[in-house]
User: Fold Developmentally-regulated GTP-binding protein 2 from Aotus nancymaae.
Amino acid sequence: MGILEKISEIEKEIARTQKNKATEYHLGLLKAKLAKYRAQLLEPSKSASSKGEGFDVMKSGDARVALIGFPSVGKSTFLSLMTSTASEAASYEFTTLTCIPGVIEYKGANIQLLDLPGIIEGAAQGKGRGRQVIAVARTADVVIMMLDATKGEVQRSLLEKELESVGIRLNKHKPNIYFKPKKGGGISFNSTVTLTQCSEKLVQLILHEYKIFNAEVLFREDCSPDEFIDVIVGNRVYMPCLYVYNKIDQISMEEVDRLARKPNSVVISCGMKLNLDYLLEMLWEYLALTCIYTKKRGQRPDFTDAIILRKGASVEHVCHRIHRSLASQFKYALVWGTSTKYSPQRGGPDTQHGA
Ligand SMILES: Nc1nc2c(ncn2[C@@H]2O[C@H](COP(=O)(O)OP(=O)(O)OP(=O)(O)O)[C@@H](O)[C@H]2O)c(=O)[nH]1
Ligand SMILES: [K+]
Ligand SMILES: [Mg+2]
Assistant:
Protein backbone atom coordinates (compact mmCIF):
# COMPACT_ATOMS: atom_id res chain seq x y z
CA MET A 1 0.00 0.00 0.00
CA GLY A 2 1.32 3.45 -0.88
CA ILE A 3 1.47 6.30 1.58
CA LEU A 4 -1.46 8.09 -0.01
CA GLU A 5 -3.62 4.98 0.32
CA LYS A 6 -2.59 4.47 3.94
CA ILE A 7 -3.49 8.08 4.62
CA SER A 8 -6.89 7.75 3.03
CA GLU A 9 -7.53 4.51 5.01
CA ILE A 10 -6.75 6.25 8.28
CA GLU A 11 -8.81 9.27 7.34
CA LYS A 12 -11.76 6.98 6.66
CA GLU A 13 -11.30 5.21 9.96
CA ILE A 14 -11.18 8.52 11.82
CA ALA A 15 -14.38 9.57 10.11
CA ARG A 16 -16.03 6.23 11.05
CA THR A 17 -15.00 6.39 14.69
CA GLN A 18 -17.36 8.09 17.09
CA LYS A 19 -15.75 10.73 19.27
CA ASN A 20 -16.13 9.93 22.96
CA LYS A 21 -14.10 9.19 26.08
CA ALA A 22 -13.74 5.50 25.18
CA THR A 23 -12.32 6.14 21.69
CA GLU A 24 -10.11 9.08 22.70
CA TYR A 25 -6.94 6.97 22.84
CA HIS A 26 -7.67 5.12 19.59
CA LEU A 27 -8.37 8.39 17.76
CA GLY A 28 -5.21 9.91 19.15
CA LEU A 29 -3.20 6.98 17.85
CA LEU A 30 -4.82 7.22 14.43
CA LYS A 31 -4.01 10.91 14.25
CA ALA A 32 -0.41 10.27 15.24
CA LYS A 33 -0.14 7.67 12.48
CA LEU A 34 -1.75 10.02 10.02
CA ALA A 35 0.70 12.74 11.00
CA LYS A 36 3.61 10.33 10.56
CA TYR A 37 2.54 9.39 7.04
CA ARG A 38 1.88 12.98 6.14
CA ALA A 39 5.32 13.88 7.47
CA GLN A 40 6.73 11.23 5.12
CA LEU A 41 4.93 12.94 2.27
CA LEU A 42 6.78 16.07 3.25
CA GLU A 43 10.22 14.44 3.23
CA PRO A 44 12.12 15.67 0.19
CA SER A 45 12.03 12.77 -2.28
CA LYS A 46 15.37 11.61 -3.62
CA SER A 47 14.41 11.75 -7.27
CA ALA A 48 12.61 15.08 -7.36
CA SER A 49 14.50 18.32 -7.14
CA SER A 50 14.93 19.53 -3.59
CA LYS A 51 13.04 22.69 -4.42
CA GLY A 52 9.67 20.99 -4.24
CA GLU A 53 6.40 22.13 -5.68
CA GLY A 54 4.18 25.00 -4.77
CA PHE A 55 6.77 27.09 -3.01
CA ASP A 56 7.55 29.50 -5.81
CA VAL A 57 4.73 31.86 -5.03
CA MET A 58 5.03 35.23 -6.76
CA LYS A 59 5.36 38.26 -4.55
CA SER A 60 2.34 40.44 -4.97
CA GLY A 61 0.66 43.38 -3.28
CA ASP A 62 2.31 45.91 -1.00
CA ALA A 63 3.93 43.55 1.53
CA ARG A 64 4.40 39.89 2.33
CA VAL A 65 3.71 38.11 5.62
CA ALA A 66 4.70 34.46 6.23
CA LEU A 67 2.96 32.16 8.72
CA ILE A 68 5.49 30.01 10.55
CA GLY A 69 4.62 27.51 13.22
CA PHE A 70 4.41 23.95 14.43
CA PRO A 71 1.79 21.70 12.83
CA SER A 72 -1.84 22.23 13.84
CA VAL A 73 -1.42 25.55 15.61
CA GLY A 74 -4.08 27.06 13.35
CA LYS A 75 -2.15 28.67 10.49
CA SER A 76 -4.58 27.56 7.79
CA THR A 77 -7.60 28.41 9.92
CA PHE A 78 -6.12 31.91 10.24
CA LEU A 79 -5.52 32.31 6.50
CA SER A 80 -9.06 31.22 5.72
CA LEU A 81 -10.42 33.72 8.27
CA MET A 82 -8.40 36.73 7.18
CA THR A 83 -8.44 36.31 3.40
CA SER A 84 -10.88 35.15 0.76
CA THR A 85 -8.65 32.12 0.10
CA ALA A 86 -9.64 28.83 1.71
CA SER A 87 -6.79 26.69 3.03
CA GLU A 88 -7.67 23.25 4.30
CA ALA A 89 -7.62 23.00 8.08
CA ALA A 90 -7.97 19.78 10.07
CA SER A 91 -7.20 18.32 13.46
CA TYR A 92 -4.27 16.20 12.24
CA GLU A 93 -0.72 17.46 11.75
CA PHE A 94 0.78 18.30 8.34
CA THR A 95 -2.54 19.11 6.72
CA THR A 96 -0.90 21.82 4.64
CA LEU A 97 1.77 20.56 2.24
CA THR A 98 2.58 23.62 0.13
CA CYS A 99 2.66 27.39 0.27
CA ILE A 100 -0.81 28.87 -0.07
CA PRO A 101 -1.10 32.63 -0.67
CA GLY A 102 -4.02 34.80 0.32
CA VAL A 103 -4.55 38.57 0.47
CA ILE A 104 -5.47 40.67 3.50
CA GLU A 105 -7.03 43.96 2.51
CA TYR A 106 -6.32 46.55 5.16
CA LYS A 107 -6.33 50.37 5.02
CA GLY A 108 -6.34 50.16 1.24
CA ALA A 109 -3.20 47.98 1.17
CA ASN A 110 -2.98 44.47 -0.19
CA ILE A 111 -0.95 42.35 2.20
CA GLN A 112 0.06 38.95 0.88
CA LEU A 113 -0.34 36.31 3.58
CA LEU A 114 1.39 32.96 3.06
CA ASP A 115 0.15 29.79 4.70
CA LEU A 116 2.94 27.21 4.96
CA PRO A 117 3.41 23.61 6.09
CA GLY A 118 4.05 23.18 9.79
CA ILE A 119 7.70 22.99 10.79
CA ILE A 120 9.30 21.05 13.60
CA GLU A 121 12.58 20.83 15.43
CA GLY A 122 15.36 20.13 12.94
CA ALA A 123 13.57 22.07 10.19
CA ALA A 124 16.69 24.09 9.43
CA GLN A 125 18.61 20.87 8.79
CA GLY A 126 16.01 19.91 6.21
CA LYS A 127 13.56 17.93 8.27
CA GLY A 128 10.21 17.80 6.48
CA ARG A 129 9.98 20.80 4.19
CA GLY A 130 11.63 22.92 6.84
CA ARG A 131 14.24 24.34 4.50
CA GLN A 132 11.72 25.43 1.92
CA VAL A 133 9.47 26.92 4.56
CA ILE A 134 12.36 28.89 6.02
CA ALA A 135 13.44 30.00 2.55
CA VAL A 136 9.99 31.51 2.06
CA ALA A 137 10.12 33.14 5.50
CA ARG A 138 13.33 34.92 4.46
CA THR A 139 11.48 36.66 1.64
CA ALA A 140 8.78 38.06 3.93
CA ASP A 141 8.51 41.59 5.31
CA VAL A 142 7.12 40.29 8.59
CA VAL A 143 6.92 36.79 10.04
CA ILE A 144 3.93 35.74 12.10
CA MET A 145 5.10 32.95 14.38
CA MET A 146 1.90 31.18 15.28
CA LEU A 147 1.97 29.32 18.58
CA ASP A 148 -0.46 27.02 20.35
CA ALA A 149 -1.34 28.87 23.55
CA THR A 150 -2.00 25.55 25.30
CA LYS A 151 1.62 24.45 24.74
CA GLY A 152 3.30 27.20 26.72
CA GLU A 153 6.76 28.48 25.85
CA VAL A 154 8.39 25.42 24.24
CA GLN A 155 7.30 25.95 20.64
CA ARG A 156 8.49 29.52 20.61
CA SER A 157 12.03 28.86 21.80
CA LEU A 158 12.45 25.82 19.52
CA LEU A 159 11.42 27.77 16.43
CA GLU A 160 13.49 30.78 17.40
CA LYS A 161 16.52 28.48 17.52
CA GLU A 162 15.71 27.03 14.09
CA LEU A 163 15.45 30.48 12.54
CA GLU A 164 18.52 31.77 14.42
CA SER A 165 20.57 28.85 13.09
CA VAL A 166 19.96 29.91 9.48
CA GLY A 167 20.80 33.55 10.06
CA ILE A 168 17.33 35.00 10.59
CA ARG A 169 17.36 37.60 13.36
CA LEU A 170 13.96 38.29 14.85
CA ASN A 171 13.02 41.76 16.06
CA LYS A 172 16.62 42.93 16.00
CA HIS A 173 18.09 45.71 13.93
CA LYS A 174 21.24 45.39 11.92
CA PRO A 175 24.21 46.06 14.25
CA ASN A 176 25.54 49.55 13.68
CA ILE A 177 29.09 48.53 12.83
CA TYR A 178 31.04 49.73 9.83
CA PHE A 179 33.12 46.84 8.49
CA LYS A 180 35.25 46.90 5.37
CA PRO A 181 37.76 44.20 4.39
CA LYS A 182 40.92 45.66 2.82
CA LYS A 183 43.81 44.47 0.66
CA GLY A 184 46.45 45.46 3.21
CA GLY A 185 47.27 47.71 6.16
CA GLY A 186 46.24 45.37 8.97
CA ILE A 187 43.20 45.89 11.12
CA SER A 188 42.14 49.40 12.04
CA PHE A 189 39.74 49.44 14.95
CA ASN A 190 37.67 52.35 16.26
CA SER A 191 34.53 52.99 18.22
CA THR A 192 32.34 56.03 18.78
CA VAL A 193 30.80 54.63 21.98
CA THR A 194 32.10 52.88 25.09
CA LEU A 195 32.20 49.14 24.46
CA THR A 196 31.22 46.79 27.28
CA GLN A 197 31.02 43.49 25.36
CA CYS A 198 33.75 43.72 22.72
CA SER A 199 37.34 44.93 22.80
CA GLU A 200 39.94 45.55 20.09
CA LYS A 201 41.66 42.32 21.11
CA LEU A 202 38.46 40.26 20.85
CA VAL A 203 37.56 41.82 17.51
CA GLN A 204 41.00 40.89 16.19
CA LEU A 205 40.69 37.32 17.46
CA ILE A 206 37.31 36.95 15.81
CA LEU A 207 38.57 38.37 12.53
CA HIS A 208 41.58 36.04 12.57
CA GLU A 209 39.19 33.14 13.13
CA TYR A 210 37.57 34.17 9.85
CA LYS A 211 41.01 34.53 8.22
CA ILE A 212 40.60 38.29 7.89
CA PHE A 213 43.84 40.17 8.55
CA ASN A 214 43.14 43.50 6.86
CA ALA A 215 39.99 45.45 7.54
CA GLU A 216 38.48 48.66 8.82
CA VAL A 217 36.15 48.26 11.79
CA LEU A 218 34.10 51.00 13.40
CA PHE A 219 31.66 50.24 16.23
CA ARG A 220 28.94 52.89 16.39
CA GLU A 221 27.03 50.87 18.97
CA ASP A 222 27.85 48.73 22.02
CA CYS A 223 27.49 45.40 20.17
CA SER A 224 28.07 41.85 21.38
CA PRO A 225 30.62 39.46 19.79
CA ASP A 226 27.69 37.55 18.19
CA GLU A 227 26.45 40.74 16.58
CA PHE A 228 29.93 41.51 15.28
CA ILE A 229 30.13 38.00 13.80
CA ASP A 230 26.78 38.60 12.07
CA VAL A 231 28.28 41.66 10.42
CA ILE A 232 31.37 39.75 9.22
CA VAL A 233 29.39 36.83 7.89
CA GLY A 234 26.82 39.10 6.21
CA ASN A 235 23.69 37.59 4.61
CA ARG A 236 21.75 37.87 7.84
CA VAL A 237 18.09 38.75 7.61
CA TYR A 238 16.71 41.17 10.19
CA MET A 239 13.04 40.34 10.38
CA PRO A 240 10.19 41.81 12.38
CA CYS A 241 8.28 38.97 14.04
CA LEU A 242 4.91 38.90 15.76
CA TYR A 243 4.38 36.03 18.18
CA VAL A 244 0.74 35.06 17.88
CA TYR A 245 -0.66 32.76 20.55
CA ASN A 246 -3.74 31.06 19.08
CA LYS A 247 -6.41 28.93 20.79
CA ILE A 248 -6.74 31.14 23.88
CA ASP A 249 -10.25 29.74 24.19
CA GLN A 250 -8.51 26.69 25.66
CA ILE A 251 -6.56 28.34 28.47
CA SER A 252 -7.28 30.23 31.68
CA MET A 253 -7.73 34.01 31.80
CA GLU A 254 -4.60 34.27 33.95
CA GLU A 255 -2.55 32.49 31.29
CA VAL A 256 -4.06 34.66 28.53
CA ASP A 257 -3.11 37.73 30.51
CA ARG A 258 0.44 36.46 31.03
CA LEU A 259 1.00 35.70 27.32
CA ALA A 260 -0.56 38.97 26.19
CA ARG A 261 1.99 40.92 28.23
CA LYS A 262 5.00 39.34 26.55
CA PRO A 263 6.89 41.60 24.13
CA ASN A 264 5.96 41.36 20.44
CA SER A 265 3.07 39.08 21.31
CA VAL A 266 -0.63 38.99 20.50
CA VAL A 267 -3.16 36.49 21.85
CA ILE A 268 -6.02 35.33 19.60
CA SER A 269 -8.55 32.63 19.05
CA CYS A 270 -9.33 31.80 15.44
CA GLY A 271 -11.99 29.43 16.65
CA MET A 272 -13.87 32.15 18.52
CA LYS A 273 -12.67 35.07 16.36
CA LEU A 274 -11.11 36.81 19.36
CA ASN A 275 -8.73 39.78 19.12
CA LEU A 276 -8.21 39.50 15.34
CA ASP A 277 -8.71 43.26 14.83
CA TYR A 278 -5.95 44.01 17.29
CA LEU A 279 -3.67 41.54 15.53
CA LEU A 280 -4.24 43.40 12.26
CA GLU A 281 -3.38 46.71 13.92
CA MET A 282 -0.16 45.23 15.27
CA LEU A 283 0.68 43.68 11.92
CA TRP A 284 0.22 47.04 10.24
CA GLU A 285 2.59 48.62 12.75
CA TYR A 286 5.21 45.92 12.20
CA LEU A 287 4.96 46.24 8.43
CA ALA A 288 5.67 49.97 8.84
CA LEU A 289 3.59 50.96 5.87
CA THR A 290 2.09 54.34 5.26
CA CYS A 291 -0.86 55.43 3.12
CA ILE A 292 -0.46 58.41 0.81
CA TYR A 293 -3.51 60.01 -0.81
CA THR A 294 -3.18 62.35 -3.74
CA LYS A 295 -5.62 65.14 -4.50
CA LYS A 296 -6.44 67.68 -7.18
CA ARG A 297 -6.34 71.38 -6.37
CA GLY A 298 -9.54 72.46 -4.62
CA GLN A 299 -10.81 68.91 -4.27
CA ARG A 300 -10.85 66.46 -1.42
CA PRO A 301 -8.54 63.45 -1.63
CA ASP A 302 -9.98 60.07 -2.56
CA PHE A 303 -9.51 58.10 0.64
CA THR A 304 -10.40 54.83 -1.06
CA ASP A 305 -7.36 54.93 -3.34
CA ALA A 306 -4.06 55.03 -1.45
CA ILE A 307 -0.48 54.78 -2.57
CA ILE A 308 1.16 52.38 -0.11
CA LEU A 309 4.83 52.91 0.72
CA ARG A 310 7.18 52.04 3.51
CA LYS A 311 7.42 54.56 6.32
CA GLY A 312 10.13 57.11 5.65
CA ALA A 313 9.47 57.13 1.90
CA SER A 314 10.09 60.51 0.25
CA VAL A 315 8.03 62.62 -2.12
CA GLU A 316 10.30 61.33 -4.88
CA HIS A 317 9.22 57.75 -4.11
CA VAL A 318 5.61 58.87 -4.43
CA CYS A 319 6.36 60.48 -7.80
CA HIS A 320 7.90 57.26 -9.05
CA ARG A 321 4.88 55.31 -8.00
CA ILE A 322 2.56 57.67 -9.93
CA HIS A 323 4.62 57.81 -13.12
CA ARG A 324 8.24 57.21 -13.98
CA SER A 325 8.64 60.61 -15.66
CA LEU A 326 7.00 62.64 -12.89
CA ALA A 327 10.02 62.91 -10.59
CA SER A 328 12.17 64.71 -13.17
CA GLN A 329 9.47 67.26 -14.12
CA PHE A 330 8.20 67.81 -10.62
CA LYS A 331 8.72 71.13 -8.76
CA TYR A 332 7.25 70.79 -5.28
CA ALA A 333 4.54 68.97 -3.34
CA LEU A 334 2.07 70.12 -0.74
CA VAL A 335 2.06 67.55 2.03
CA TRP A 336 -0.57 67.17 4.74
CA GLY A 337 -0.16 64.71 7.58
CA THR A 338 0.64 64.13 11.22
CA SER A 339 4.39 64.18 10.56
CA THR A 340 4.54 67.51 8.72
CA LYS A 341 5.56 70.72 10.47
CA TYR A 342 2.87 72.80 8.77
CA SER A 343 -0.33 71.69 7.07
CA PRO A 344 0.26 71.73 4.24
CA GLN A 345 4.02 71.68 4.12
CA ARG A 346 5.74 72.60 0.88
CA GLY A 347 8.39 70.05 0.07
CA GLY A 348 10.88 69.03 -2.59
CA PRO A 349 11.56 65.47 -3.70
CA ASP A 350 13.46 64.61 -0.51
CA THR A 351 10.67 65.46 1.93
CA GLN A 352 9.93 62.39 3.97
CA HIS A 353 6.74 60.90 5.29
CA GLY A 354 6.68 59.47 8.75
CA ALA A 355 2.95 59.26 9.29
N1 LIG B 1 -9.86 25.43 20.09
C1 LIG B 1 -9.36 26.01 19.01
N2 LIG B 1 -9.04 25.26 17.94
C2 LIG B 1 -8.54 25.88 16.86
C3 LIG B 1 -8.35 27.29 16.81
N3 LIG B 1 -7.83 27.62 15.62
C4 LIG B 1 -7.70 26.46 14.94
N4 LIG B 1 -8.11 25.41 15.67
C5 LIG B 1 -8.16 23.99 15.30
O1 LIG B 1 -6.83 23.50 15.25
C6 LIG B 1 -6.72 22.48 14.28
C7 LIG B 1 -5.56 22.73 13.34
O2 LIG B 1 -5.86 23.85 12.55
P1 LIG B 1 -5.10 24.11 11.17
O3 LIG B 1 -5.57 25.44 10.69
O4 LIG B 1 -5.25 22.96 10.25
O5 LIG B 1 -3.62 24.19 11.67
P2 LIG B 1 -2.27 24.37 10.79
O6 LIG B 1 -1.32 25.14 11.63
O7 LIG B 1 -2.59 24.94 9.44
O8 LIG B 1 -1.78 22.86 10.67
P3 LIG B 1 -0.79 22.17 9.57
O9 LIG B 1 -1.18 22.63 8.21
O10 LIG B 1 -1.07 20.73 9.77
O11 LIG B 1 0.58 22.57 9.96
C8 LIG B 1 -8.07 22.42 13.56
O12 LIG B 1 -8.82 21.37 14.11
C9 LIG B 1 -8.70 23.77 13.90
O13 LIG B 1 -10.10 23.72 13.90
C10 LIG B 1 -8.71 28.06 17.97
O14 LIG B 1 -8.59 29.28 18.05
N5 LIG B 1 -9.21 27.36 19.03
K1 LIG C 1 -3.61 20.71 10.91
MG1 LIG D 1 -2.21 24.21 7.61
